[in-house]
What does this fold into?
Amino acid sequence: MRLKKHKTTGSNDLFRARLDQIINMKHELVLLAGKIDWDWIDGEIAPL
It folds into this structure.
């Protein structure tokens, strides 16, 4: 089950690094994840 989409508030947490600051945003898996239609997948598997 996927979590609800997080809305960005614009405020940064002083003690937490954002994920895009930790991982390589040019990595193949990151690029692939950006091309996947996650909303369609959620709609297909939600009834299951």
About this structure: Residues 32 and 38 are 11 Å apart (CA to CA). The helical segments are 19-22, 28-35, 38-45. The two ends are 10 Å apart (CA to CA).
